[in-house]
Specification:
Oligomer: single chain
Radius of gyration: 19 Å
Order of helices and strands: HHEHHEEHHEEHEEHEEHEEH
Shape: globular
Distance between the termini: 57 Å
Number of strands: 11
Strand content: 15-25%
Structural class: alpha+beta
Strand order of the largest sheet: 1-3-2
Number of helices: 10
Length: 239
């Protein structure tokens, strides 16, 4: 059967998108930007171990391909993931990979890997053991319903607004789903994403319940965060 022109165009577009991530340096750039922050070309060059000119070439391709967005502030140029859907794509692809055949070597690499597994940001929501534990605790408390499409319950909405202080207008439906399950690439289980996941993560930072570990995506629970999770969700031993 003949393939129609639109199908050929779609296949070409998909191949072009896949080609953007087929380069290890560009893939490393996208993984770094999963921390949700904006980086400069120089910072990304240092992170990926390539020359600044090489990093800039890769950034141009990623911006032109729609995976990254750039903004200028004074003389500086910053790049970040174009939108939450790109973060979801990168995290979902990572989750589909099998277990690593070459585990990290050296104290620094092992420590960094362990920190990412314990807790990290996936663009603008919590992931890793911390993100999954919070999601499971919310489900057990009937704040989140994972059995019927991963949705916040009415009790969950009240918990976010009345208990955590999220503004109701910040949870209004929009282009982004209110709650969505995101397959965690280290835990192989779902953590809470979507608007609710983003607002929850922001409250954790605002309340200083979590803190960044170094300059990457890893986060850790603070003593205040450990106390809050025990009080709010009955979670213990997370940190």
């Amino acid at each position: 059967m003949m393939t129609s022109a639109p199908d050929l165009a779609s296949a070409a577009d998909l191949a072009s998108l896949a080609a953007l991530l087929a380069d290890e340096t560009r893939a490393a750039i996208c993984l770094a930007l999963l921390d949700g922050r904006a980086w400069t070309a120089g910072e990304l060059a240092a992170h990926t171990g390539v020359a600044r000119s090489t990093a800039t070439e890769h950034l141009h391709r990623l911006v032109d391909g729609g995976l990254l967005a750039e903004r200028r502030q004074g003389r500086h140029r910053y790049v970040q993931l174009a939108d939450p859907s790109v973060a979801h794509l990168i995290e979902d692809l990572s989750a589909r990979l099998g277990p690593r055949q070459d585990p990290p070597r050296g104290l620094r690499a092992v420590t960094a890997d362990a920190a990412l597994r314990r807790g990290r940001t996936c663009y603008d929501h919590l992931a890793g053991q911390l993100g999954v534990a919070v999601t499971d605790a919310m489900t057990a408390a009937e704040l989140l319903d994972q059995a019927r499409g991963f949705a916040l319950t009415q009790a969950g909405l009240r918990w976010l607004t009345d208990t955590l202080g999220v503004k109701p207008e910040d949870l209004r439906p929009g282009k982004r789903p209110l709650a969505r399950g995101c397959l965690d690439w280290t835990e192989r289980r779902q953590h809470l994403a979507g608007t609710a996941g983003a607002r929850l993560c922001q409250r954790f930072f605002d309340n200083r319940w979590v803190a960044r570990v170094g300059s990457g995506r890893a986060v850790r629970l603070t003593p205040a965060g450990q106390a809050a999770l025990q009080d709010l969700l009955g979670l213990e031993g997370i940190g």
